[in-house]
Amino acid sequence: MDWAQLADVATRLAGGLPTTLLLVGQSLLIGFVLAVLVALMRVSPNPLLSAPAYGFVYVFRSTPLLVQLFLIYYGSGQFRPFFQDVGLWFLFRDAWFCAILALTLNTGAYTSEIIRGGIQSVPHGQLEAGRAVGMSPAQLFRRITFPVAIRQALPAYGNEVILMVKASSLASTITILEITGIAKTIIAQTFRPVEVFIVAGALYLAINFVATQAILYAERRLSPASAADRAKAAERRQKAMLAR
Amino acid sequence: MKPSPLLALVAGVLFAGSAAAQDWSTIRIATEGAYAPWNFTNAAGQLDGFDVDLANELCARMGAQCEIVAQAWDGIIPALQAGRYDAIMAGMSITDARMEVIDFTRSYATTPAIFVAPKDSDFAAAGLPETRVDMTEISAEEQALLDQVKGLLDGLTVGVQTATIHENFLREHMGDIDIRTYDSQENLDLDLQAGRIDVALADQSGWQPLLEGELGEDFTRVGPGFARGIFGRGVGVGIRKEDAALKDKFNAAIQSALDDGTVSELAIKWFGFDSATTD
User: Fold this and answer.
1) In this prediction, what percent of chain B has a pLDDT beyond 70?
2) Which residues pair with B117 in a beta bridge?
3) Partner residue facing B162 (CB), from A74, A93, A188
4) Which among A148, A149, A168 has a CA at the least distance from the CA of A211?
5) Is B187 within 8 Å of A74 when comparing Cβ atoms?
6) Is B268 exposed, middle or buried (0-12, 13-18, 19+ CB in 10 A)?
7) Which whole-number Å values give the CA distances from B178 to A97, B94, B157, B159, in the listed order?
8) What is the mean pLDDT of residues B205-234?
9) Whose CA is closest to A178, among A8, A6, A21, A9?
10) Cβ of B193 under 8 Å from any chain A Cβ?
11) Counted domains in chain A
12) Can you tell me the mean pLDDT for A168-173?
């Protein structure tokens, strides 16, 4: 292994870091909004809302992301006259848009299931209590359902973030030069796949380390009873007992 | 302890290719399978094309049992080094960069690189001459032509297959242009048809499926055919450096197939023109 070359490879691969982060960041952001909408539709008692949501989740969770990416990118290319007629070609012509669309729909489908699980785990008693004090359905959602659901969903969502960081490497198949795309280019010039992929792997590891820590931090912050809180509560109970 | 089958499998994968001296009665040859008419997967799911026909012909001449396998282009050299197969016949040009890591037999074909663009594009309308530019020694006249091409490409999106002599040429001689790289010629063709790229550079023979296909009428060759120099010394069989005996066997077989006109016959069958090398 040639260390000078390794350093050069690392510098070049790091150049793909902003692209990878932007790809993941944009699709997670849009995907989350989509996921909340889909999750709300999914838990709705109205089949006109829940059925399409179920269909969307089913299709995007059950097909490989690579297939979705190729269908959106090369598929739209095959139907260029149609897309030009409806005035959407300027979007589909752009590889970046196609990548964001595929990643967003994918993460939207997965995340909506995570959020649905969270919503359905909200204890009935808490909702009853909210209704008892006269909260409107919107207030109920904003003050009780959503915060509790998100807290429940956070560990699973952390998993989804990590999966998305890795999934973004597939964008390299549609001409986007993120970390993996640059790695492939360097391998093409140096024919040294082992060194290049080790560095690329280390970069993904670093991104996911930061992501994992961020999620852990959020989990601790949102936790209803952190260890310290629990200790304080126990102390209070004890005092109350003694005072009696 | 009895070695488990799984362990044997793992060892087999890890140490494949480090087998002791070979008599080359069996040879594994890799091709890409996505670069018609050189090599592609036909409707029956079989590997087919100029490389595949010639590989079978050469194997017959070498008296060897051959197995032809498909391997994606961007990993085709590393996998040869890793010993997953013994030779590459995939329309691969002999270049200095590749010679640093693997060896090549003599060349069995040479075809120039050409630009293809939509017929109604400005690039096609610029009236570039369809001469042949030898990149070994660039004359003043040829340099002027290169500069003219460079000027025309400025502001356009240019497509090329990744890890090819064509990509190297664009990056070294065409300056700071917007280059999109593709993993296969097939995907390059698709995006040129989709209009995501304005013009693309590839081997003349590799353009055949697009230009002679359904939508071929809308596209045309533009400008000179580039060859040699950065484009390498023709297409040869890629072989590991340590396998000199195999290289000799291939060289003898290629020479005899060139001498009796078999290579030319196969070239005319697949390319429609004689691509057999004269040097």
Assistant:
1) 91
2) B220
3) A188
4) A168
5) yes
6) middle
7) 18, 26, 5, 9
8) 90
9) A21
10) yes
11) 1
12) 94
Tell me if B196 and A76 make a contact (CB, 8 A cut-off). no
Cβ <8 Å between A175 and B163: no
CATH number of the domain at B113-231, please?
Answer: 3.40.190.10
- A238: containing domain: 3-243
CA distance B245 to chain A (A): 23
- Bridge partners (DSSP) of residue B69 are B30
- Kind of pairing between the strands at B132-134 and B34-35: unpaired
B187 interaction partners in chain A (CB closer than 8 Å): 74
CA A14 distance to own-chain centroid: 22
Query: Residue B101 burial by CB count (10 A; 0-12/13-18/19+): exposed, middle or buried?
Result: middle
pTM for the full model?
0.80
Question: Is B5-110+234-271 a domain of CATH 3.40.190.10?
Answer: yes
**For chain A, percent of residues with pLDDT exceeding 90:** 76
Judged on CB neighbours under 10 Å (0-12, 13-18, 19+), A165 is buried
Q: Residues of CATH 3.40.190.10 domain(s) within chain B?
A: 5-110+234-271, 113-231
Pairing of strands B87-88, B34-35: unpaired
How many CB atoms lie under 10 A from the CB of residue A2?
11
- pLDDT surpasses 80 at A98: yes
First to last CA, chain A: 74
Exposed e or buried b per residue across A91-108, where buried means at least 16 C-beta atoms within 10 angstroms of its C-beta: ebbebbbbbbbbbbbbbb
Look at A175 and B182 and tell me if their CB atoms are within 8 Å. Answer: yes
B74, B163, B196: residue with CB nearest A77: B196
Cβ contact B47:B55 at 8 Å: no
Residue among A78, A173, A191 minimizing CB distance to B77: A191
